[in-house]
Amino acid sequence: MARLAQTADLTDIQQEILSTVRSFVDKEIIPHAQALEHADEYPTEIVDGLKELGIFGLMIPEEYGGLGESLLTYALVVEEIARGWMSVSGVINTHFIVAYMLRQHGTPEQKEHFLPRMATGEVRGAFSMSEPGLGSDVAGIRTKAVPDGDSYVIDGQKMWLTNGGSSTLVATLVRTDLGADKAYQNLTTFLVEKPAGFGTVAPGLTIPGKIDKMGYKGVDTTELVFDGYRIGADMILGGTPGRGFAQMMDGVEVGRVNVAARACGISIRAFELAVEYAQQRETFGKPIVQHQAIAFQLAEMATKVEAAHLMMVNAARLKDAGQRNDVEAGMAKLIASEYCAEVTTQSFRIHGGYGYSKEYEIERLMREAPFLLIGEGTSEIQKTIISRGLLKEYGLER
Ligand SMILES: Cc1cc2nc3c(=O)[nH]c(=O)nc-3n(C[C@H](O)[C@H](O)[C@H](O)COP(=O)(O)OP(=O)(O)OC[C@H]3O[C@@H](n4cnc5c(N)ncnc54)[C@H](O)[C@@H]3O)c2cc1C
């Protein structure tokens, strides 16, 4: 058999990009990930290396200075990076979602203004839907923008911004009361430009500080407080208010493929660590891999890695073909994140007591995997999306 998680029918360019990223991950990420993560230190040198490789512009069209690659290429790159350290994939993911939303929904002026600088990594994107009182229930957003002349004034609090401090452009979903019947039709995405950093970074705009997390360290996750923040109407994504919910859901749909890819990367690494350890550790006179109980665990883990990878690739290819992939992306995200939690736990158990030591990489993966059950929509939300999709296809006509 071949190594796990191979992808059929890649172009020469895709293979070249992946092999470059894989060698960057092996040389520049894996050797430093444990120390940086334990110190909760931002991976500045790694991020600079990714900028040089052009990763920040991977999916940005060539006319704006990007590489114009597909969602599949992006997802496979993310899988490689998360195999090295999930936090690094977090640095690029919100940037990628915002660039994608601009590409799909931005006005020509907005694309011209942001995309070339996003392609180089000079402008770095974050996206903000969640608030202290809501995450899954996006339509309930309370942060409000009120028109005032040819600008808007925003008040409210946002929560859980990945790259909240290090980004310079935050696509932010807020309420603009337009009188529409459905709550989600009253939501608008604003392109909030700000300097990187913490504290009051602009009049009426505060990034209080980093939220201390269980894992996924190094990358900053923050709140965002608006207090009479004034923004021009030209900073509404696409120029027309009331379209924010659909724009964000489009972004999250590609984000889900990315989270599935991340889960695949972590699972691959957890498997690699387990299969190596199982051949080195001896009990009762033989390597533990020769105990059938351990060999069968490895067989199960490898099968989960393979299944999740195939579903992730399928969801990415559908989107690249211009088809709706909400159900497939939901399925890929669901299975990849659930399998990732299982595979990391299996790898942890194969490591015995050493799995609990901070010297071994698996303890970090054990703290990273749970986030994937939550981010870009929890497993329950994925099941809601999948089951709704199923009834569209299989519903009985009455
Ligand atoms: C580290 C980290 C980074 C994040 N980064 C970002 C970011 O960059 N931008 C951003 O906008 N958000 C971000 N988030 C927020 C994330 O998207 C939300 O945490 C997630 O959507 C879940 O929302 P919640 O935490 O409010 O949970 P809730 O919505 O309160 O859900 C709580 C529980 O109830 C379940 N539940 C909720 N509704 C239903 C239902 N209808 N049926 C069945 N079960 C249900 C959920 O599955 C969950 O188990 C981040 C979160 C974390 C932890």
TrEMBL record:
Annotated Acyl-CoA dehydrogenase/oxidase C-terminal domain residues: 242-391
Domain Acyl-CoA dehydrogenase/oxidase N-terminal: 11-122
Keywords recorded for this protein, A-Z: FAD, Flavoprotein, Oxidoreductase
Xref: Pfam families: Acyl-CoA_dh_1 (PF00441), Acyl-CoA_dh_M (PF02770), Acyl-CoA_dh_N (PF02771)
Cofactor requirements of the protein: FAD
Superkingdom, natural source: Bacteria
MF terms in GO: acyl-CoA dehydrogenase activity; flavin adenine dinucleotide binding
Residues covered by the Acyl-CoA oxidase/dehydrogenase middle domain: 126-227
Keyword Flavoprotein: yes
Transmembrane segments: none
Homology family: Belongs to the acyl-CoA dehydrogenase family.
Record-given protein name: (2S)-methylsuccinyl-CoA dehydrogenase
